[in-house]
Records
---
Amino acid sequence: MRAVWMVLSRRIAGQFAFLLVIAGHNPRKDRSINDRLYLVYIIVFFSIWIFSVLTLFASWAVKLLTLFGQQNPAQTAGNVMLLALGAASAVKLWQAASTSPFVFSEEDALLLCQTPVSRRVVAILWFFHRWMISVLPFAVLAIVLGFAQVEIQANRDLGFLDLPLYIGAGIKALFAMAAAYLLAMAFIWLFGILRIRTDHDIPRYRWVAIAIIAIFAALSQSNSQAFSFLLAPLRLVLEAGMGAGSYFNALLLTILSSIVVLGLLWFFAERLNLSRAAQETAYVQQMQAAVWLGDADAMAHIRIKRKLGSSHAATKLPIRAGSYAIYWRILLRNLRGQLLQNVFNFALVLMVTVIVFMAPDLGSLVLILAIWVLQLGQRAANRMRSELKNWWLWTQLPFNLHQEMAWQIFPAALLLIVLTILVMLLVLVSIPPILFIILPIAVILVIEAGIFDVIRGVSAHSEMLIVEAIPGFTIIGTLVGMALLILPFWFYLQPLTIRSYVSIGGWGIIEIGLMWLWIVQLWKKRK
Amino acid sequence: MNPILKAEAISRYFDKFRALAPTDLTLFSGEITVLQGPNGAGKSTLLQCLGGLIRPSTGKMTICGFDLYQEEREAKRHLAYVPDVPRFYQEMTAWEHMQFMAAAHNVLADYAQRAERLMRNFGLWDARDLFPHNYSRGMRLKLGLLLTFIRPFDALILDEPTSALDEDSTRNLAEYLHALRAEGKAILLASHHNQWIEQLADRSLQIQNGVIQAV
């Protein structure tokens, strides 16, 4: 027990310390009175901030509950929570039929899975650790709905003196949801644990999960007694948490039910196969670690690795000698990587590009242009980052930055321009001829701004290339992109004459050329 | 012997730390030069500077007369470098990497036969359709070497090429390096493998605290 607790408690302490470090307090270093006062300040600040946000959400929830649940808002709120809990439980039950609900890191695999520690202790401690973390979104939902009940029942403007009402309702709803979630999660883990007690898979276990989900779904559509009985420990407590029904009796029923299911979990956990659980959850664990650190690159890497599997037959994509190979590589990587996400991102950029030229006034145009520069600039920067991340391979290719940039900019820009014009033709039927001048110029300038931002970061610290720490798109890139668009769009907004065409085209080409040379010079002079 | 790679007064600082003192070094065609030194002596920094992976803080480098930073494209045609742990494109298989490298260097003609021969010789043929992130460290190193051997070059820089190779592969690599020397390539490699060094080296260099000395 002590060994398992030591492993888990250190992890919890590490996670807690990580959150505090993000907030600006390092518990391992900051020990002075000032530091402790700052810690108190952080706690007070975030408490007030979280409370404010939750009351804001509650005011929206009041509108929805009074709209959809005029008869009985408390019961409607209870049903909303039951629905959310039911949907999440169905997904988790389905996952538990094929992947262990226990998630172990590599360290856990070494420290726990290979040692004769009590499997029951591991099961219970890991269960409560996961429960504490995964209950959070449901807790937020419960507190918001609890606050909403206070506002509905008060039927007047509430002030600071009504704070105890909010706190009381929030705690009541929170405990109700925590208990209900405990029961649901204990059942799911019990279901998962039964599968990973041996090295062998239980045949058709997924069908068992489907059957359980189907039974609950079917019963929920009827007003049968069986359904009421089966769901009573969940439904009663959630409704009571919103003020409908006897709270303590419902809470007691849910807690007793949870104790029974947890007892079964304890009983069956004796033969829990920890090694198998560790093998099954390697991906989930890596992903959780990446999400926890907010490391988008690591998340993408893990996702692509999983998608690709171990092997692939050689591509049929035709390849030609010379710098065309750069484009072959870009195409292949895009097709094999996160294709759906790439398509979605491109569609988003396309949509904003179309909106830019439909802006009704100057204010809207500036706002949409800023969003467009952010979107398109970021995509261009990400592509350049992705190539520079393979720095060793980059150095082995007989290409210079001119060639790399040309293949990164022109095919993507051409596709975006053609599709934008097609979409505009569909929407507007006819499009102003000036668009054929300003659109290519604006697209290329913004892509250049994205590439510029990455090269700017790299040129100051080229040693970052070795460790694959390539900077991303920043506010400077956005500002450069916006600045580059000032001249072309200034002429675009003037009364259109032949001079406008010449000015936009001429200035655009000059800006593209100067920007191109600036990027190449930065690259050549990297330190 | 013709000078292939010339480095004049190259040095590298990381902030105030001097990883490499100002160094002059010339690699000649048909010569294998071995670089030795304890861990942290500056071997990898020197090789990365020569290979174009890190820009030296001072000095100038030319390969076959082309400046590595001003005439990047021409210089890179003649220079090859293989790190001790190569990294690859995540979405491309080993075979596609070979295909891409051959296309990039304009040597697509009969590349399939050459790639197959190389992969069979180094034991990667059966794993050609695997993504390199599924490779062991030794296999990655071999693929890194093969990506170099599939393309033309005049100067080859290898950072601890035997660090993850088994005995047969090490012997195989030695044979390749002998053949490359006979073709007039200039080769510089860092290694701790003494027996191998004695067998291969035409010239040995010792590096200590970022300062290079001929042995």
---
Amino acid sequence: MKPRPLRQLRALVLKDLRLELRTRDTVIAMILFAVLAMVLFQFGFGTRQSDLTKFAGGLLWVTLAFTAVLGVGRSYVAEREQRVLDGLLVAPVPRMVLLVAKAIAIVGYLIAVEILVVPLLGVFFINGPFWSDIGWLFLSCLIADVGIGILGALIASLALFTRARELLLPVLFLPLLVPLVIAAAGATNAVAGSAHDLVQYRNYCLFLVGYAVLFGLVAYATFEAVFDD
Amino acid sequence: MTDLAVRLRGKGSALWALVAAVLSVVAICGVFLVAPEDADQGIIQKIFYFHVPIANTSLVAFGVACVAGILALRTRSPRWDEVLTASIGIGLLFAGLTIVSGSIWARASWGHWWRWDDTRLTTYLIIILIYAAFFVLRSSVEADRRARFSAIYAVIAFASVPLSFYAVRIATSFIHPVVFNSHGANLPDSMLVWFIVSQAAMLAVFIAFLLLELTQRRTESSLRRLRLALDA
Amino acid sequence: MSHGTQYVVAAYAVIWFVLMLYVAVVGLRTSRISRELELLARLVERRKADEQAAQAEGQASSSPATRP
């Protein structure tokens, strides 16, 4: 039977999705966190600089990077606390399917956050045209999310078996996220406000694609070993 | 371990230390006594001869760690775990030296200890953060998973090195359209020779350190086995 | 002294200082290994001595009994 991994993947993704839809802890907390971070940015920088349009990319992506750490940290909570992992590991599911399912769950969290946060960025911080380029903004977010999802699923599964995992996760995850934040912030800045530099935007997005592909390959090569006891 | 390996244990580090010492003396003499003084930067440019080779050597160390990580995942031999941990430790040492010497250079030529548009300084800061996390990870994993997770992280971290390099470069090149390059991309041959010699010297230092560290780790584990056998 | 010599000296000093510091750390660890090895050697010697003493004692105590 060919599509078996796909069915398994669907089951795993639906499991995470249902769990989240029933409890809604993670996404709501992430959204609140992201909005709070933006408010803090305003009071940290905005009091001396009335127009933060130039900093929109950095603002958005620093916020999203920290929010992603929250989401990634929560992504294995059911597996850990309800001992789902023991069952999953005994089940004849290819390990790659587990990784892809987690990556999809993380991307899902991030999209849910971005749907609110990106328009909010336009309302709060951007002077000048914003709504005409919002499609480009969402596109770059989506590409970046894939990279975050893959890397996040890999790092979270490492952190799953460590002591002090809440502490360890940001320390492991954020340095690896630096190139992504640089490129994603660049892409946002290229199309936010009055800027409309699609050549620059394309280069940054290509970098984001490369980031996702590279870490996808690394995850493909190493993920087998994470759960290999 | 075969008897031959036991008999050769520790000899390599002595040999490479000797090579490193000789090459370092030759490199320093060449850099200060033979190589011509740079027309723009004057004597400050002499920092370059060790700053850049040290930077490259730390990348070599992380590359060695990545290869050792792949081999560790393939073979599950604890020896590769020793190699990659030792290599990352030494690589961090060299990366730290890159930052310090680069910072002194920045101070000498621009009057500031730190410039975010100096791509080498910025990139190595990110790399240090990435690899410092390795030891945090290692210390918080239980012993049965430590080798495996260390190997996986060594591979992930090395994959992000080129990404960091490229990201920092595109970011700074958009701030400063003219690429700011005081690091002498086009060296005349009279300088290049001494650059290569000091690069070789730093690589020899790395190899000597790595072998020394490995000898020591193996001695420690032999000692541990001895203690266990005598149940003291 | 041309401009910036102090910086060049400082950079080279820091580089070699740190490299030597690493050697010092390795030396410290070696001395710890040597100390432990010495302790183990003494332990082995003492055990051997104890064994010999026990053997000698055993021979001394058993010899009268075996004598007819």
